[in-house]
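User: Here's a chain of 456 residues. Predict its fold as tokens.
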Amino acid sequence: MGLELGERHRASREAQAGARLAAVCADEPDAGNLPVAEAKPVRATAARGSTELDAEESLEEFRELVSSAGGVVVAEVIQRRARPDPATLIGTGKVEEIRGIAASAEAGLVLFDHDLTPTQLRNLEAALDCRVLDRTQLILDIFARHARTSEGKLQVELAQLDYLLPRLAGKGKDLSQLGGGIGTRGPGETKLETDRRQIKRRIDHLKEELETVRRVRKQQRQRREAVPVPTVALVGYTNAGKSTLFNQLTGAQVLQSAKMFATLDPKLRVIELPSRRRVLLSDTVGFIRNLPHTLVTSFRATLEEVAQAEVLVHIRDANSTYGEEQKTQVERVLGELNCLAKPRIEVLNKIDLLDAHEREGLLARSEAGAEVAVSARTGEGIEALLKAIDRALYTDPVMEADLSVPQQEGAVLAMIEAGMVVHSRAYEGNLVHLTVSGPASLVGRLRKYRLGEESR
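Assistant: Prediction complete.
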């Protein structure tokens, strides 16, 4: 069931808060195919003009997260409180209600759309007599499901262990597999201390392996930088259509899915722009509201592709009812990566899902240059996007030049046709007079054939 978040009696409206519970039937081996229950936390009421999600929008997003984790929602409850309860977050009365719902649904797992403190987690598990996971743990589980490469698995494991370490109290039985073997404990050492020591050792090992990955990526970037091929990174909220757009632009066949966080590992492909310049296009992991800090830290090696990009293409879901909130969250993560100052192109995707009036409005704004409206699924607006990327690049700028090339220089003429835009062509005796535009690096290689040039 769903309850609307109402206003509190306080005029400032700052005291309103809510908590949401849902029981879901999870299709995951670890849970033994048991139903799952989910809870929604306290949220402050948004002031006019704020980009905060309202109750229904937050509930809709959390449903998508649960679905991406393999669950099916069967019941929902929203709790309203003036302030979170320090012991259980939602209060003893609501805990009893959740206990009844979980028991009637035979739920083996309760999910909270809020981060729980170690104390709250222990108290809730004791009171509900079933497993309890908070929002961050759910996101980490989704990442673990979608990790395919060894690098992705390392990054997810590091994030999981970083989050688990301060929450080890009372987990001795669950973590018994971490111990074992003669000599793993010293005299008088508790199981908790052994678990912590072994997890810290594993974290150090993972950091060393990821540092090796970072060094390899740095070497690869240095080799790329030897040739003036700039990188353009696709960034955006999860499920905004980045991978679909990446496939549309590159012809690649990377996984595109309606599930959240389908892409964890960066993909790089070369594309050609209208100016005939070539750039590397990078598909990156999606962002989300309240993205766990452990993920930002652990995925630093992957997100370095964003930090090193010359231009960011921010993909937004034009069909989303909370696009401004998504934009704010993406910019928040970009701020953590010190990337807000980079040239950024705003792209409104999924315009094929809009009605005719909305599409016309977006296309008019796109023509004015404010944003670029596209449909990654149908290909509409792709040419306008490529031109926008062309204008935003500053490495290897486009230049115009007048060339005079002997007709017997077939290799030179072929190079011009392949790498430059020919605006005019005229023949005079054995010479071909050309007016062209192309990358400054290529124009420079044709210096001896140039009659004059000007930067465009």
